[in-house]
Structure formats: C-alpha cells, structure tokens
Amino acid sequence: VLGAAGAGRWKRSGGRALTLSVSRRPGPFCPQCGLAVEPTFRFCPACGGRLPAPPEERTEPAAPAPSPPPVSSPAASSSPRASAARLGPRSPRKPRAGPAVPLPADTVLTDQGGRLWKLVRLLEQGGCGLLYEAQSASGTCPQKQSYSLKLDAKDGRIYNEQNFFQRAAKAGTVEKWKKWHSVPLLGIPNCVGFGLHADSYRFLVFSDLGRSLQSVLSDGLHLLREKAAFQIAVRVLDCLEYIHENEYVHGDITAENIYLNPADLTQVTLAGYGFAFRYCPGGKHVALREGSRTPHEGTLEFISLDSHKGTGPSRRSDLESLGYCLLKWLCGTLPWSDELGKVKAVMEQKERYRKDVRCLLQLCFRQRSIPDALQNYLEQVLALQYEDRPDYAALRQLLRQPLEKMRASAYDCVDVPVVP
C-alpha cells in the first residue's frame, strides 16, 4: 500500500518509474505507526516515536575481505532488507543535537506569527532545554506581563513538545475540557507562540509558568507535608486524565516538570512534554513491544518499568511515575536513589517492589506511619495492565480523603512556602 509520499511520486513520475523508485529508496515511514514523514524529521509527528536515521547518516561497517561480487541489480543491493543485513539489527544513529548554548539577555526572537519576544533572564538550564523569563517586544501582548520561553536545539526534544501542543493542548480544547468535566483549574500550559531562531534554535512561549517544584524543594524545603503532596498529586492527575484522553502520555513526571506560581499558589502546572508519546494514535492503543523504543528515556529515578524496557509508555506509566514522585516528596529518598549510575540496578529494584508495595513503603517511611491513601494508590496503579484505562475518579478520591480530613481542597492554595 502506498503512503502519501509514494502516491505523490507515482503522480509525478508515471507508472514506469514507480517500481524503481520504491525498490531503490523506500519513502520514509514511521516504523511504529506507519505514517509517511518528511525525510528531515527525527520524531514522528503522529505518535512521537524516534525515526530511523536516513541511510546516508548511518555508519557502514568495515568492508569484508574481497570476494567475487554476486551478480545483482543496483535496486536489489540497496533494498531495505539488504541494508538491514549489512548493518545489523540496530545500526548506529546520528547523535542527538547537544544542549543548546544560552543566548544573552535582551536577545529578541520572532515567532511564526511575527510577534517579537525579548529574553529577560535565564531561569533554568537542564537536559531538556533552557527556560527564560521573557517579555513581549511587539506591542501585541501586554508589555509588563511576564512569559516563560523555552529554548532548545532545533532538532532536540522541543520539536516533540511543540508537536504535542499543536495536536493536543490548544487553549480552546483545554477550556472545553474544563467545562465538560467541571474542573475549576487545569494545569496544562498555555502555549502562546513558537518559532525558530538563527536556524539552530527552536522555542516555545508560554504564559508565565512560575517556579518548578524542584527549585522550591531545593530552597531547603526538601520534603512536602502530606497536605501539599496530595494537593499537587490530585492536580497532576487532572492533567494526566486530560492528556491521556487526547491520545498522549507525558512520559517524564518529575518535580522538575511541575510548576507553582508564587503569585497564585492555586496554580499548579504540568509542563515538560519533551518525552510525550502518542500512545493511542487514531484511537488505537499501541502494542506492548519491549525494545521498540530507546530504553530508560526520561528522568531515571521516576520513569516507569515500561520506559526502562524500551516499551512505549502507556497511561499506567505516568501514574506509576507519579507514585514514585509522591514517595520522594514525602520521604526524601527512594530505595534506588543512591544507585542512579547503575541503570540495571534501578530497573531491577522497581521490578522487585512492583510485586511488594508494602515493603517499598516500609523502606521509605521507616518508623513513620504510612498513609493509607498512598499505599492504596500504588497498589491500584501497579496492578494495571498495559492497555487498561485507569479509574481516574477513584484514584483522585483516594488522595482527596486525607485532604478532606484536614478540611482542605486540592484546589486551595498549595501548602508550600514559595518565594518569587
């Protein structure tokens, strides 16, 4: 069956050229969902999966000892199957673009809509890009209003993040969801612009995100009270239900990707969609296949077993990661926190404690009492099958029960001291 790219070549080249074109160089398709993609793409715009490098970017092995060449046509020698035989099951790929070099303050960037954005100061710098405070410089947005501008290498994970926002997180879609589900607050970032800069950077502009929860914890707080931890977890669950219902999973739940607004602590935002994965393209759940993706992608301490094994993350993956985050926020450490340099050891411990949640909790809480809500949450989440739809309402209610005993709501101001 011809994809769109193949059909285009048929129309342009005529029937005689069709067989030769396909056999000599197949059109680029996503190996996971089958979508035809542009040759320059590194990630599939439909499912978010990593695409194979073009043939010219693959490294050929050393030539074998001379032998009489077999008689074959040029088309046969360059077929996909022949290439796979020469290169082996996993050929080397072109290295991912390195970390973006910070730009100086007062640099002005122009988005695809022609609006100008001026960088004010660098707020955060990590493996998934640079986060700046920015201001509008074009007069089309309030001049004194602050924005968050994320900047990364053009071909980095920010491309995947931009794709997520264009497909699944438009402001109008989020507002409809809030009304339909009677959710007073939903922490999906509002992406107000995107573009390229200097042919080497890609950027996204958001309404002000505030401060990451990780930066707040690093101020000296270290641990969260149960009230704050459960408030944040309920709000993140709301966000996960939204993105899951829109065919995506987040793929990297961590305090670095959760933001609090110092000026309004009712605002909790789930950001950082560089590892977002379209687990259900067109309403059909991807199959469970270990090794179909690069293993261990995301923040090693909190990623799910599915991500460790190179399986496309599913809904249970995000909920599992949120459970590990809750444990870290309440206890300060996880059994594998000191072994993050040993990837296999981390994965083995997660595999072990998946079958013994009580033991995991006892190790983390030691002599302290274990919250029933957290134990019930982890037991339910870790019992999910790969394609199961979680009962979000039931999981939220588990975490709301201790809040109700404290006469608090998940939508109150989060019980965390945050400085600007």
Automatic annotation (TrEMBL):
Biased segments, Low complexity type: 73-90
Domain of life of the source: Eukaryota
Biased composition (Pro residues): 63-72
Pfam families from the UniProt entry: Pkinase, Zn_Ribbon_1
PROSITE patterns given in the database record: PROTEIN_KINASE_DOM (PS50011), PROTEIN_KINASE_TYR (PS00109)
A molecular function GO annotation: protein kinase activity
Region of interest (Disordered), residue spans: 54-106
InterPro entries associated with the record: CK1_Ser-Thr_kinase, Kinase-like_dom_sf, Prot_kinase_dom, Tyr_kinase_AS, Zinc_ribbon_dom
Domain Protein kinase: 117-404
Official protein name in the record: Protein kinase domain-containing protein
Record organism: Junco hyemalis
